[in-house]
Design brief:
With 316 residues, this protein is mostly helical. The chain contains 14 helices and five strands.
Length: 316
């Protein structure tokens, strides 16, 4: 299987996990009972009323320790996940798992099929060429996606705050409480607006998880990156397939630390398609090596012939 198949598999699997976590009581907050549920168990601070009644230093120390272990420490660990991921894997999570990123890619592909460009507003130099065949089919798919996917997302994500069985009971009876109605409508509108108008701009400039991965991946000496083998630059056919495959508008042949790169491997797949399976010029690499980063550190006048060939599309 190709890298694209593996990536679609991880994206779909993670979306299913996000949808199933509240259903299986893996993680959710029940607003009715004011309880946080993790793996079917109520997460509490483990404090009894007797400790609050006891004003001794020992009791105060116990309360403080329990609060740190059950409230502060888990939150610190959670907040550390994305900086750690960024330090080790760059924005790999964004390209391989993020549900919003998957939704935006779907919107890009449908817009490309219908309008011949990824964006609603303008055609970019790296937009791939597409045929106008089966337009009616893609119109139907686009309309169904706009109507169904936001509602499914609204129901699933509202389940993190309201018991899923309660939500489905209200759907079956068509009698909604204000909280369930607001949750479903609010999430649906958010998904619809971001997928139509905002898309990857949210990934670049707004998403906190993406920004943390971006910053820590940028400074990390060991972060996972996609690199071009400059020693084989002569084999590049200048098809620009790597650029056209990139939905984040990265220029892969420049071999720079581009903070927009989500390590999706689309350029790897495109180059393998052009030169043959396993013969592509791009590969995943952890950390930096002088042989593949020399373009970043050279001035324009000192660029080697290989680097000029990889950057010529920027000079024209």
């Amino acid at each position: 299987m190709g890298i694209t198949v593996y990536r679609r598999t991880t994206q779909i699997a993670f979306i299913l996990l996000v949808f199933l976590m509240p259903v299986l009581n893996i993680f959710r907050y029940d607003t009715a009972t004011k309880e946080l549920i993790i793996f079917g168990q109520v997460w509490s601070l483990g404090l009894k009323e007797a400790f609050y009644a006891d004003h001794s230093m020992r009791a105060a120390g116990h309360v403080a320790l329990q609060f740190f272990l059950k409230a502060i420490l888990p939150w610190i660990v959670f907040l550390a996940i994305f900086p750690l991921l960024g330090f080790l894997t760059g924005r790999f999570f964004c390209g391989w798992f993020c549900p919003e990123g998957t939704l935006f890619e779907l919107a890009d592909n449908l817009t490309l099929k219908l309008l011949g460009r990824r964006s609603l507003f303008n055609k970019r130099p790296n937009d791939p060429e597409v045929s106008g065949e089966r337009e009616l089919l893609y119109i139907v798919i686009a309309l169904m996606s706009m109507a169904v996917l936001p509602l499914i997302g609204g129901v699933a994500l509202t389940g993190y705050l309201v018991a899923p069985k309660t939500i489905w009971a209200q759907i079956m009876s068509w009698d909604f409480t204000f909280g369930v109605k607001a949750g479903i409508i609010g999430v649906s509108i958010y998904m619809l607006v971001t997928s139509i108008l905002v898309r990857h701009s949210l990934c670049k400039y707004i998403c906190a998880a993406g920004l943390m991965q971006m910053l820590f991946g940028w400074v990390s000496p060991v972060s996972l990156r996609v690199r071009m083998d400059l020693s084989r630059a002569d084999e590049c056919t200048n098809c620009r397939g790597c650029e056209k495959a990139c939905f984040m508008n990265v220029l892969p042949r420049m071999n720079k630390r581009d903070i927009s790169c989500v390590n999706c491997g689309a350029c790897v797949a495109a180059c393998n398609k052009e030169l043959g399976a396993g013969k592509g010029l791009f590969h995943f690499q952890s950390g930096e090596k002088k042989t593949v980063t020399e373009c970043e550190n050279m001035s324009d006048n000192a660029l080697s012939e290989h680097c000029k060939k990889t950057a010529i599309h920027l000079r024209t």
